[in-house]
Amino acid sequence: MKDILSSNRYMKVEFPFWITRTVQGSIAEHGHEFVELVYVVRGKGMHVFQGTRYEVHAGDVFIINPGETHAYEVEKGEQMEIINCLFMPSFIPDALLTELEITGSMDYFYVHPFLDHDVRFNHRLNLHGQDAVGVLNLLENMIREINNRSIGHTTLIRLQMIELLVLLSRYYTMMSQQRIHPSPRQLDREMTARRIYGYLERNYEKKITLQSLSLLFNASIRQLNRLMQEEYNRSVFEALHEIRIERAKHLLLETEEKVIVVATMVGYEDQSFFNRLFMRHVGCSPKQYRVTG
Prior knowledge:
Layout: E1 3-5, E2 17-23, E3 27-32, E4 35-49, E5 52-57, E6 60-64, E7 69-73, E8 80-87, H1 94-100, H2 107-110, H3 117-122, E9 125-126, H4 129-148, H5 153-176, H6 184-203, H7 210-217, H8 221-232, H9 236-254, H10 259-265, H11 271-282, H12 286-292
Parallel strand pairs: 1-3
Antiparallel strand pairs: 2-8, 3-7, 4-5, 4-6, 4-7, 4-8, 6-9
Helix pairs in contact: 4-5, 6-8, 6-9, 9-12
């Protein structure tokens, strides 16, 4: 069993965020319960993600999702300085997403981290010039705020984090514009479906309704399901159930929590419903999967 870093080791429930700047040495493969955004300030090294090695260097930005495993290798005599930004998806509440109308401006958070692994890390963001300066300034501002803890620091950090994700999403969109699409309309439909899917990945443990998604993504319930069917060949809730069951499989193998607790952790209050759903998707009960998986 790989080392899984717990969120309560770094952050509090009421403010699920932490950021630090460090000279990163080699570190063994590990996973974590939170989202990790990494910015390479200077130097270079190897980033080992899910067993595959990728060279990283100054200006690189990448995101590690909860449940994924990674490691670093830094050669003797080399140095790699990074900024680690750790947070739970709940750090950016739905009410703020709705009020600011930014679900279409967060593709670096809701789309890019759920692409194929090689696409993510062979086509990761690399910032330079004023883009790199702007992102580094935002990250350093958050470090100062969390260290000084002055009045209003939590509000400023939350807003700065949103600004950072919107900026990174802008750079990601510019980087992706070289892709050829049949039409702008089809691209818009594809991206909306991917944003919905990414939102489900980030918030699977919440009570999610079609009404709340409709409000977040400014689309009717019928449109939401049609877009998901076109892109993923499944409805919104079929996709949500698959995401939850996959996360439950990880929790059953990586933790010793009771099945009823695992069910709650992935968004199901009714254990019998969870058991039936798990059997349908996996072919065995949660208890059997824990023993044989």
